Amino acid sequence: MYSLLDTFISWFVLIFGVGAPLYVIFKAIGFNGFREITVYSKYNTFLYRVNPAIKIVFAVVIMMVVTTTIWWIGAILTVAVLSLYITLEHGKRKLYIGSLFIMSTLVGSLWGYAPFVTYSTLSVVFPHFTPDVIWTWPSYFAIMGYQHVLTLQALKYSFQISFRSTAIMASALLLVMTNTPSQILRTLHRFHIPDPILFSIMVAMRTVSFVLEYLNESIKIQMMRGLGSKHSKYLKPIFFFIAAMQGLVPTIIHIMRGGKDTGISADTRGFRATKKRSYVESVPINRLDYYVLAIVVVLIVMDVAINIMGFGRTIPYN
Amino acid sequence: MSKAIEINNIEFAYLGSSDKSLSIQEFSVEEGESVLITGLSGSGKSTFIQCINGIIPHIIDGTFAGSVKIFGTDTKEMKVPEISRTVGTLLQDPERQVINYTVEEEVAFAPENFNIPAAEIKEMVNNAISSVGIDHLKGKETLKLSGGELQRVALASVLTMDPRILILDEPTSNIDPEGTNQIFEFLRKEVGKRTLLVVEHKVERVLPFIDRVVVFDQGKIVVDDKKENILNDVTLLEKLGIEIPENMFLAKKMGLESYDIETVSQYIYENKIALKMPERKKGGELSLRTSGNVKYDTGFDLNFNLEFKSGTITAIVGKNGSGKSTLFKGLIGWLDDMHQAVSDVKIETPEKVIKDNNIAERGKIIGYLPQSFDLMLINRTVKRELHYSRRVRGNSNSDSDIERITKLFTLEKYMDTDPLMLSQGQRRRVAMAATIAGGPKIILMDEPTSGQDYYHKKNLGDEIGLLKQMGYTIIMVSHDMRFAFHYADRMVVLDSGKIVADGTPEEVFDSSEVYGLLPPAEFSLRRGIIV
């Protein structure tokens, strides 16, 4: 018999998986913190001088390495890329915020994946698989695609594969923090990506911080209006999650209303006037870029070597 | 002179609507002419300018008929980018227009789109930046600029292609008084150099440098007259809900030929005419005492110690960056501890003292209406929105209290409507009613008049006047000096994080120019003779 307490714990765990990362982003990192790690700010250390094209190649190679090697390579690369944050403007703070963000990504990925891992996957991943059941979900959780039980192996596996996304995330943020969107787009333009797509990316890069700002405002207003005030402070993350969900529609509508003006502003300034765009500032390749390219080559060689040594993305995972 | 714009028999209805949003038989603008376009929100002004810059019919779908010619060429025969080389458009909200990260990148956006060689673009960018007077912003990041600075960057970006026609669609609606002054100063210098179409509610500020006034009502041009003749139209303009400066009314009443403030003031002074000041309330009992110090890691330091009384309206004014928003955030507990060193933002009411930043606790005492009021409309119906606080907090408001609030904001017929589907003015009223329905007696309003026309501002003024009579304490951050003059009992001026003036609007306006706050015509007329 599934007790009321069990039901409560199940729902708490479910909401925790989604709510905790959101709570960390909004509460611990805050809107200003999130903006700091998602927008460019001017500074003059070596990372700011590396060509964005090289950084894109670097990020792609990181992605390649973490997806083709054992999980701890991904963990090491996550830490290595994160440690580069210290060289940025307000480096210590960016490292701290970045670490919190990566932690929340880790928790989010883990909880977002673990309940769905099937027995068949786990039996392929772990040799002689004997499930260590740590929780049994209510039967109706199957509607959401949940497996009937949560096993220690599912948690382990999800934790390991989460590092694939964290290293990629850390290097992508590094690119965004050290190059303006137009520098990145200039680079992508060379790869013949259509202008409307590039423009959408550019607007999205600028809008992401506003989305969080507005959502944050909507959440705080709901709290001011009394949401969750009748309940224990320990349930705050749950009400925070509810507020975030409720705030999504007005936030999106608010952004969309502004989006029309953004489009008109671009169109009335000649956007898509010609097939080719010119750029006022060139982004040259310099000696530093060759050093970074050398690191990229080392990463590729390392990837091959690791795979030869048997630490590739092979099973078993432990 | 050649015709810059020629319009013949245009009609436009938005997709899905059978009502015509615009219907103009004949209209033209000479090259080099400066035209003020005004009218209530929704009167057709924006649709009209979108017909000129080609957004209609090329981008916005709908039923379009007639012809719009720009220097003799029909806009239907040109693409929008082609039109944009001749017609530059500056919109209302700078944050929605600026998409690049640095000032130079933003200003270079248009010539880059036209694939102009980099060396030429650099020169064009430098010229545009200099013409708007923002050389000091070169190299800065657009995200770190104030609203006024950002709007001038957007203006420079429009000017890079040196358009022969420049449209400014409510360019000062969302910026501070200093930024507003700078935009108007630019416009004053531009007169005669290119054709100007200025959509503006602040008639008083634009009249000195335009040639002609065009007024829209329900999609039609109802007034099209030379500036010199505008005195004859004053009564009609007021009926149409246009914000008419008092000096114009007085000039017409007194039979003066000129309506400039000096002439009207002189006449008033010589004839000993008494003009009443708006009534200022000292207020009842103390409703809020607050003191605090907020230090940003950028070195900005805000210090305040303020008391507010029930039944009063206080306007907090000052330039961008003076600390107005920080003060509000401090009061409602929204300061982000990671980025600000916060110390002692204490609020105290006769009933309780709150020292920590507990948002919910502060929300019991203080209601907050943000500038982006849409963000608080989370419920599916207006009725649910008004009952929200009672539902989630269990406050003491009864059904009859909420009914009373509904009537106060005339929302009876919208109770089952989705609040986000209402018009801007209606949404603002729902947000305000929902804030009041939450139970707090102290209401903070952030830029409540931003982007609103005279008619809606007057409605807002009447509503907060009623709340004042009911004993509410209204505290608003505002850039609208005219609104503050008419409705505030008290003005507090912030400058670089310090309170530099605190008194009735007339006391404050006596010296406010030092802080970049230009007094409205109504005050200037009364400066000599106060009753």
Topology at a glance:
The complex is a heterodimer of chains A (318) and B (531).
Chain A: H1 4-38, H2 46-49, H3 52-68, H4 71-83, H5 91-113, H6 119-125, E1 133-136, E2 149-151, H7 152-178, H8 181-190, H9 195-224, H10 236-267, H11 287-308
Antiparallel strand pairs in A: 1-2
Chain B: E1 3-14, E2 22-30, E3 34-39, H1 45-52, H2 55-58, E4 62-70, E5 73-74, H3 80-84, E6 87-90, H4 94-97, H5 103-107, H6 109-113, H7 118-132, H8 147-159, E7 165-169, H9 177-190, E8 195-199, H10 203-206, E9 212-217, E10 220-226, H11 234-239, H12 246-254, H13 261-270, E11 286-296, E12 301-309, E13 312-317, H14 324-332, E14 340-348, E15 353-354, H15 359-365, E16 366-369, H16 382-393, H17 399-408, H18 424-437, E17 442-446, H19 454-469, E18 473-477, H20 481-487, E19 490-495, E20 498-503, H21 505-509, H22 521-526
Parallel strand pairs in B: 3-8, 3-9, 6-7, 7-8, 13-18, 13-19, 16-17, 17-18
Antiparallel strand pairs in B: 1-2, 1-4, 4-5, 9-10, 11-12, 11-14, 14-15, 19-20
Descriptive notes:
The complex is a heterodimer of chains A (318) and B (531). Chain A has 318 residues and is an all-alpha fold. Chain A has 2 domains: 1-192 and 283-313, no CATH class; 194-270, no CATH class. Chain A is built from 11 helices and 2 strands. A two-stranded antiparallel ribbon of chain A has the order 1-2. In chain A, helix 5 runs antiparallel to helix 7. Chain A is globular, with a radius of gyration of 22 Å. Chain A starts with a helix and ends in a 10-residue tail after the last helix. The model of chain A has no long low-confidence stretch (mean pLDDT 87). Chain B is of the alpha/beta class and 531 residues long. Chain B folds into 3 domains: 3-241, P-loop containing nucleotide triphosphate hydrolases (Rossmann fold, 3-Layer(aba) Sandwich); 245-274, no CATH class; 286-375 and 440-526, Rossmann fold (3-Layer(aba) Sandwich), CATH 3.40.50.300. In chain B, the strands form 4 sheets. A 6-stranded mixed β-sheet of chain B has the order 6-7-8-3-9-10, with helices on both faces. Chain B has a 6-stranded mixed β-sheet with strand order 16-17-18-13-19-20, with helices on both faces. In chain B, helix 19 links the parallel strand 17 (442-446) and strand 18 (473-477). In chain B, helix 7 (118-132) packs across helix 8 and helix 8 packs parallel to helix 9 (177-190). Chain B starts with a strand and ends in a 5-residue tail after the last helix. In chain B, 52% of the residues are buried. The model of chain B has no long low-confidence stretch (mean pLDDT 89). Classes of the chains: A mainly alpha (318), B alpha/beta (531). The interface between A and B is large, with 63 and 77 residues.
